[in-house]
Amino acid sequence: MGAWSGCNSRGGGRLQLPSVRIVPLLLASSLARIKLPFREKRVFMDNSTLPRPRRSGFEFPRYDARIHDGDEVQLASIHGTWLSLSFNPAFTLRGRTVALQASNGRFCAVDRGHPQGKIKCNQRVPPFAAWFEVSQGTHNISLRGVRGGKFCSDEPEGILCNRGAVSRWEAFDIVDAGDGNIALRGGRRGNFCADEGHGMVCEFKSMSDPAVFRPVTDAPLRGRIVQTADAAAAVTFQVHRRDLGSREVAMRCKGDGNYLAIEKSTGLLGCTSPTPWTVWSSRVDWWDAKTASLQSPESGLYVKAVEPSLGGAVVADNDEGTGWALWRVLLTGGYESLRPMVRGVNLGNWFLLERWMANDLFFDETGKAFADECDAVDEYGLMEALDKEVARERMEKHWSSWITEDDIAWLGDHGINTVRVPFGYWMVFPSPPFVEGQLKYLDLLFRWCERHSVAVLLDFHGLKGSQTGNPTSGNCGACGNQNCGKTHVRFLEEEETNLQVIEKLSSRYADSPAYLGFAVANEVAGTASSLDTMKFYQRAYDIIRSKNKDALVVFFATFNPSTYPFQNFRSVVEDVHIYFGMGFGDPTRDQEVNLARAQKAVTGLNWNVLVGEWSLGANGHSTSTWDPADRDKFFARFAKMQLQAWESHSTGWFYWSYKTRWGNSTWNFRDMCEVGWLPGCSEELDYAPVEWWDTPSCAYAYLDGGCPAPPSTLMWWLIPLASALGAAGAVFAILKPPWLVNCVLGAAGAALAAASAAASAVTGLVTGGSGWEHLASGKADSGAAGLPDRELTGNTNHSKDAQGRAEPAVEQPFIW
């Protein structure tokens, strides 16, 4: 265990303790409770590196023509063929200038003394007349003498270079003879060409030695892009793209090292450039996210796939960018944005009232319910029906009490890392009858969330003009009641105002460490114009991204925006709302059946998915009449089933809602947690780690029992040893024998310091003036500069002195 080294009169000796890492129990417990900032992490993924089961937005391979930097893609033509890289001289020689060296070592040249320009292979060195241009044909090539500029023809008396145009006899086939050699077939009979001492003629049935030539070129041959019916032979391109807002891309041929380039003179494609060579890539239509066109910046012509029966060439000679110039882009791998699992709640009914959640607010000035069914249908109607001062007093009281800092602290202490905050346009533009004053409470929320390590997703729930036609938008007119007039779904008519709301709020909170991102429009009605909605999304995205480069941008699933060609989008997710029994079918009592339905609802999309709203509402079942034990079992498994679906196949979820005005409601997250049906409030049920990409899939199988508990890595004897050392130190401190004070206490102090240092090294934490902070990662490939690869995932200590916030100088868009 160790030995005494002796103590001299100066106290220089020290007790030699065993080299084990001792973490004081109190310290270890405190460290395990810290929750820290976590920035977006960019990691390359493909089919071999993906965690299982797969999540939407992380499906490989998939058709996706966004073509972002770092993507690896393959291109398929409308013929069903694939682009392939060929080193066959039949392709690599096309468009090149070549001299042919016969098997006897002599070069073939146009005989200047022959009246019709016959080719003879009798030159020791290649003269000027030995060079030929290999021109691109449909499925053949032609030879054109450099000296005279005439095309060569397969005539009965031999190959004569005296033609001014190309017809059948001027067409030759190049055959790969192996080892860099070629043979030529004439166009007249398809026979091989050779010179056996009387000039070159095409009369040989087999590829004998005289018919084999070594091509000598003016520059090294590079791989050509051709078509193949074999998908396994498709070339993979590695995308280099500096600016998502530009069409310019460079595509490196994987495994070859050179970049795709288009020859200006011929339009042929090849992996021929040692440096990045730009092509223009464009998505084709608003409704097609899978197809792109490629265009030469020099000629302006589009790359097309020639009909395979005509040789299958790939050439930039199309001036329309349609038909044969369209390409399906298969994404085989790429850099994906990874964020910790979002576990959140909606702060519903705070800044946007919903009558079913707030009947205690929907009464007239005498305290009675509104008599007319058309009165106070939504928040606009309520404010319009009340006296201005009565409305102000009622709303101020509501805003100041519905959500407080205690609520945010409770959420952070019980496993919730994010809040979704529904609001209406009147938060920024409180025109009558709406009451002004919400912004100060939203400011407070951000401060509370910063203190308690909870992220904020701003949720534009009520756009001006209404995007839903429902009371949940707060200004929908008749809100679907035909007896009350017209229902509004005209948010696009108020586009400028709605974009100003997004601009002002995203600018106001862009620098808050609690700011996660912006949900642009909640539950857009299917009656809106899909194309105009997508254009609105593009403008909203540009605004949000201009304020914060890492902000998460959320679009609702109406019209499935992930199928539209947003060329420059990144860090976007599609929002789905899934309520069993409300447009999703009633839940069965068989949770495995429910699980299959839930999993299907969140898979198969091009983007990552957030389940923006869900609950334990068991519509279709009169659970209040069930035996209590059966009811408890059903809801406990119903909760685990949904958590397993959302956390196994999406990037996170938000429960609707954090609270309701009545207790014991399946719409009330806090009650459902405290009763034990949701994780975070009992030791029996806890959440899996948030780093889903580094966590076994079984960890999220809540319904199936999760993963087996790993064996403890802490040896049992370390705990009593740490306690014994602490007790010995206390005794020695009281007795204070000088030799023990110098030796033992010094050793114990050193051990404690070493243990603290070891704990810091293990966890990546150091103490600082504002609490515990992460040490910068030294790994070059960590995916996020200066940040660790992993995050602590235990319960969170939300005391003021133990925040997971780094110094203000470090940019951190949000806190987890």
Written overview of the protein:
With 816 residues, the protein is of the alpha+beta class. Among the domains are: 1-40 and 727-816, no CATH class; 62-87 and 225-337, Trefoil (Acidic Fibroblast Growth Factor, subunit A); 90-217, Trefoil (Acidic Fibroblast Growth Factor, subunit A) (Trefoil). The strands form ten sheets. It has an eight-stranded parallel barrel with strand order 27-28-29-30-31-32-33-34, surrounded by four helices. The chain has a six-stranded antiparallel beta barrel with strand order 3-18-19-22-23-26. It is elongated, with a radius of gyration of 36 Å. One of its GO terms (molecular function) is glucan exo-1,3-beta-glucosidase activity. It catalyses: Successive hydrolysis of beta-D-glucose units from the non-reducing ends of (1->3)-beta-D-glucans, releasing alpha-glucose.
Keywords:
glycosidase, elongated, Trefoil (Acidic Fibroblast Growth Factor, subunit A), 8-stranded parallel beta barrel, signal-anchor, 13 helices, 816 residues
**How many separate helices?**
13
Structural class: alpha+beta
N- to C-terminal separation?
42 Å
The CATH architecture of one domain = Trefoil
The first-level CATH class of one domain is given as Mainly Beta
Secondary structure tally: strands: 36
Looking at the structure, the CATH topology of one domain is: Trefoil (Acidic Fibroblast Growth Factor, subunit A)
For the biggest sheet, the summary is:
8 strands, parallel, barrel
Which runs of at least 5 residues are low in confidence (pLDDT < 50)?
1-37, 713-719, 730-816
| Neighbour order of strands in the largest sheet | 27-28-29-30-31-32-33-34
> What is the assembly state of the chains in this entry?
single chain
Mean pLDDT: 83
Shape: elongated
Query: What is the share of helical residues?
Result: 10-25%
The radius of gyration over CA amounts to 36 Å
Strand content: 15-25%
Keywords: Cell membrane, Cell wall biogenesis/degradation, Glycoprotein, Glycosidase, Hydrolase, Membrane, Signal-anchor, Transmembrane, Transmembrane helix
Family: Belongs to the glycosyl hydrolase 5 (cellulase A) family.
Protein name: glucan 1,3-beta-glucosidase
Main location: membrane
